[in-house]
Structures are given as C-alpha cells and as structure tokens.
Specification:
The chain is α/β, with parallel strands linked by helices and 282 residues long. The chain folds into 2 domains: 167 residues, HUPs (Rossmann fold), CATH 3.40.50.620; 99 residues, Pantoate--beta-alanine Ligase, Chain: A,domain 2 (2-Layer Sandwich). The protein has 10 helices and 9 strands. The longest helix has 16 residues. The radius of gyration is 19 Å and the shape is globular.
C-alpha cells in the first residue's frame, strides 16, 4: 500500500491505471468504511482511498477542529484493502481560496440541509475535486448518508462525469446501530439508547409494508416516539428513493414503489443519521 499526499504524485501513480475504484473518506475509519473498501475491490483493479477532513462542509458551530485525525491507525486498517491512500493537506486541496463551488440541487436545502446550510455545497465541491484528481472508473459511498449519495449521483449525472457511483449498504453493530464515526461521542448510557433510532424507523417500515399510507402521520408518530425517549429530532421523513421528494400521490400519480424513511436526531450532543428502504410489491 502506498501513502501519497500530493496531487502530482497521485496523478503520476495513476497514469497507467484504467480501472481504479475510489472510496473517499474523512478518516477515523470503522467497519462501514472497510466494507466499502472490500466492495471497491470487486469494481476495480486498483483501489484508492482518500482521507481528507474537508473544511468546506463544516459549519461555523460544527466540529471541524475536533474531528478525529487518525491517519496512522487508518492506514493500518487499510493494509490489504487499499492499493493507494491519498491523504492531502488542506493547502494541497485548496492552494488558493476556494471561490468556485458546486451548487447542489434544491433537495440540498431540505432534510439535513435545513439545519446544516452550506454543508452539501462544500461536500459536493470536494467530491468533484477528488473525482477530478483520481479519475476513477467507479466511486463508492455509503447509503447511511442517503441524501449525500443522492446529491453525488445527481452531480455525476448532470455534469456528465465519466464515473459510476455505487452505494454501499449501511453496516450495523450487532444491536442494529448504524456504524458512524460520531458514535464514539456517545456516553455508555447513550450508546445503549442509540439503537432506538433504527428501531423507530423499522416500526415505520413495518407499518408501510402492512398498508399504512398516511406518511405524515407515520412521521409524526416517529418524531413523538423519539422525543419521548430523550431525542432532539431534526426530522423523520418518508421520501421517494428516486428523487427524495415527499412520498405520496402527486398530480394523480400513485405512491412510488421504492421509498426510504430517513431520520436525523440528537442524543445528548451527538447527531445521528439513519434510514431504511421500503420496497412495495407491484
């Protein structure tokens, strides 16, 4: 495995590679990231991981300075999984003040975007830069951040980028909690309660599969259940998988068959994301 920190060296190393698979990360790796790396091996002869904590996607009150930097441990975990680790400094990715940005679609202002203004613009901008630097055939992102994956897919489609985006399934702990770098911020007591977010989404999923179609009522019930158990809820939303618009009959069209129930909520000081897909029978 080769550790590279400059764009010039990375481009030189990849100049003869024509089937690379790329997994962008912010480091502090867990099994969810490693699962994406294993999946990447199925899609490319050369597997590239990036480790870069992107300042553009952190708001002024968010934890950019506190975000864990664990490069040595991350590289140890990537041994045997990645061929190349690209770990640039901020000055390498942003040698001049970034004044050109990707303007994401309107959905970026909803869901997580409603409470994190500018987050998806910063995320999309750095992903576009990384895709341009690495120029992979395939890039892989986790489904846990469903909104992020959707925005990246739209960017690639609308910007005619020559890369295929693959979504990796959410990896969960034994009790069902979605793995996340932010889980380490949970206290022992909070960790025991954290799985309730997933359980709440599973209950909504079960109701839809049993015929419930009042999605607003389902969302309200989920929010109330979480609040009753000590959560501060940003949102619970039933959306179409295809466009992340609210599920339901629109202009006479029936409910789409592929839905996703998405949620973001805080337990103590830790903000957690999760989602479950729902596929209805035709």
């Amino acid at each position: 495995m080769q550790l590279i920190s400059t764009i010039a060296e990375l481009r030189a190393r990849l100049s003869d590679e024509h089937a690379s698979a790329f997994v962008p990360t912010m480091g502090n790796l867990h099994e969810g990231h490693l699962n994406l790396m294993r999946l990447a091996r199925e899609h490319g002869s050369c597997v590239v991981a990036s480790i870069f904590v992107n300042p553009l996607q952190f708001g002024p009150t968010e934890d950019f300075d506190k975000y864990p930097r664990t490069l040595e441990a991350d590289c140890a975990r990537l041994q045997g999984l990645a061929d190349i680790v690209f770990a640039p400094a901020v000055s390498e990715m942003y040698p001049v003040k970034q004044t050109v940005f990707v303007e994401p679609p309107p959905i970026a202002n909803e869901l997580c975007g409603a409470s994190r203004p500018g987050h998806f613009r910063g995320m999309a901008t750095v992903v576009l830069k990384l895709l341009n630097i690495v120029q992979p055939r395939v890039a892989l992102f986790g489904k846990k951040d469903y909104q992020q994956l959707h925005i990246i897919r739209q960017m690639v489609l609308q910007m005619n980028l020559p890369v295929r985006i693959v979504g990796g399934e959410t990896v969960r702990a034994a009790d069902g909690l979605a793995l996340s770098s932010r889980n380490q911020y949970l206290s022992l007591e909070e960790r025991g309660k954290a799985v309730f977010l997933y359980q709440t989404l599973q209950e909504a999923q079960k109701a839809i599969l049993q015929g419930e179609r009042d999605f607003e009522r389902l969302e309200k019930q989920a929010v109330e259940a979480l609040q009753a158990n000590g959560w501060a809820v940003d949102y619970v939303a039933v959306r179409n998988q295809s466009d992340l618009q609210s599920a339901g009959t629109v202009q006479g069209n029936p409910v789409q068959y592929e839905l996703v129930i998405m949620a973001a909520a805080r337990l103590g000081n830790t903000r957690l994301l999760d989602n479950v897909e729902v596929c209805l029978a035709d």
